[in-house]
Amino acid sequence: MTARSPRFTESTQGRLRRLNLATSLPPLMIAAAVLLFIDVHAWWHVVVLAPGVAAGLVAFERWTANDLARVALPGVIVAGAVWPLGVLLTGSPNAYWGVCAVGSLALREVRRRRALVVAALFSYVAVVGAARLLVERDDVHEVLVSYVLIPTALTVLVTVMTIVGERFYDLIRELEQTREREAELAVVRERVRFASDLHDIQGHTLHVVKLKIALAQKMLLRDAGRAEKELRETYALVSDTIAQTKELAYAQRRLNLSAEIENAKNLFEAAGIRVRVTREAEVDARAGEMLGQVLRETTTNILRHAQATQVQITLSEAGITIVNDGVAGNSPPELRGLSALRQRVSGDGGELTVEQHEGRFRTAAMFPSARAGTTAAGREHDR
Predict the structure, then answer these.
(1) Model's pTM, two decimal places?
(2) How far apart are CA 316 and CA 85, in angstroms?
(3) d(CA 175, CA 202)
C-alpha cells in the first residue's frame, strides 16, 4: 500500500472533514452499536467483536483526516481477524462489518492491481462466511444467506459506493486545482497591469528625455540659453517621473473607484469566484481614490492568500466593505499592504478595519460622510 498524497488545501480538507464527521460518523456509530447488541449473547462476545467495530470507526475517522495510510494495514489485520472469530466462535453473522468498512476504505491506498485486491476482499468475506458450515450443518440455506450472501453483497455495495465517492473527491480536487491556477493567472494579470502602468510612466518619459537631451546637445554651442532650458525641463520631467513611479509602487497613484470595482470584479470572476457588488450610495469622488487603493490591495490579498468562493463588495456613502470566505486559521494573517494603507486612511480622517470570523474575512474602509469631502479637499489643496 502506498499513501496518496493529499491535494486539498487545508481549508477545504477541514470543511470536508467536518462535513463527513457530522453526517456519516453518527449513523456508523449507531449501526455498530445495533450490530453488537444483536450479536452479543455473552460477555466474552464483546471482547471478540468490539475490536472489529473499533477498527472500522477508527479507519473512517482517519479517512476524513486524510491520514488513512497510517492505520490501514493494522485496521485490515484486526478487522480481518474478527470476521472468522465471529463466524466460528460467537456465531455472529454481522462480524464482517469491520472488515467491510476498513477494507473498502483501504482500497483507496492501493495503487497497483486494485482489481485483484478487490476480488480478494470479496472472496475473503464469502469464504470465511462459508466456514460457518463447519460448525453448523443443519441449515445450509440459512448459513449461506446469513454468512455468505448478505455479507458479500453488502461488502460489494459498500466498496462500489466508496469507489464512486473517491471519484467524486478526485473531481473536487481537480476543480480546486483549476481554481488555484485561475487565481494565480489573475494575480499575473494584475502584475501585467502594474507593468503596463509602469511602462506608461517611464517609457514615455525616457523617450522625451532622449529627444530633449539630443536637442540640448545641438543647441549647446548655438543657443546656450535654449540648451539650458531643455536641460531644466528634462530635470523636472525626470523628477516628476520618479514621483509617479514611487506613487505607483506604493499604490498612491490616482485611482478611479468605479474602474477599480469593475477590475476587481473581472479578476475575481476570472478566478472562478462569485462576486456581488452592492452600491448603497455613491462615495465622494475625492475620497474614492483612497477607497480604490484599499479595494485593489484587498483584491490582491484575496487572490493570493484565500481560497475564496464568493466575495461581497458593498459601497456606502461612508466607504467600502469587502467580505470574502475561504480563510484558513483563527486569526487574521499579517498583510503588510493593508497595514500601510491603514496609516494613510487614518491620516485622512478615516478608519480601516480588518476582521476574521468563522472562515470569513472582512475589510472595511470608512470615511464619515461629513468629513470625507473635507479631508479629500484638503489633500487636493496640498497637492
Answers:
(1) 0.51
(2) 70
(3) 40
